[in-house]
């Protein structure tokens, strides 16, 4: 078994002068940094007093699931002889708040995949299951990650 390690730096930027002296007295802004990558501005969801112009953890989890599925899917496509010429997704996630905490109840990935030939359509649809099984992030969460793919054929 191979081990892979990941690291980043997170800096809270929300001290407005009195720290966490009260729930409304501090900002939720954070800065995420990783070597060799652009900085990522984060915050809480606006519902939780965050900055809507910054990425929130819930969006980042959704992005991680969608990107991981894409990368796993492209690998499966190569292995099965499916030539993908275009792929985009508009995933949605549902989170239930319970008291001050909560959890995701479901994520639905909605990939739109274009393949090079009509003969590839059935396999292109099938390999979403394989990609899901092989996605490290989907295998790490305790809620369903469903797929509603649309497969199209590139114009000749």
TrEMBL record:
Domain of life: Bacteria
Transmembrane segments: none
Coiled coil: none
Protein name: Organic hydroperoxide reductase OsmC/OhrA
Naturally occurring in which organism (per UniProt): Nocardioides aromaticivorans
């Amino acid at each position: 078994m191979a081990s892979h390690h990941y690291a980043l730096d997170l800096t809270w930027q929300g001290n407005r002068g009195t720290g966490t002296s009260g729930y409304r007295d501090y900002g939720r802004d954070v800065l995420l940094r990783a070597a060799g990558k652009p900085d990522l501005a984060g915050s809480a969801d606006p519902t939780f007093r965050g900055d809507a112009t910054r990425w929130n953890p819930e969006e980042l989890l959704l992005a991680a699931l969608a990107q991981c599925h894409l990368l796993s899917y492209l690998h499966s496509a190569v292995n099965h002889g499916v030539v993908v010429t275009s792929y985009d997704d508009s995933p949605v996630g549902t989170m239930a708040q319970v008291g001050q905490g909560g959890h995701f109840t479901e994520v639905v990935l909605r990939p739109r995949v274009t393949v090079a030939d009509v003969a590839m359509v059935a396999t292109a649809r099938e390999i979403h299951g394989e990609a899901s099984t092989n996605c490290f992030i989907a295998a790490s969460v305790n809620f369903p990650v469903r797929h509603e793919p649309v497969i199209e054929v590139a114009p000749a």
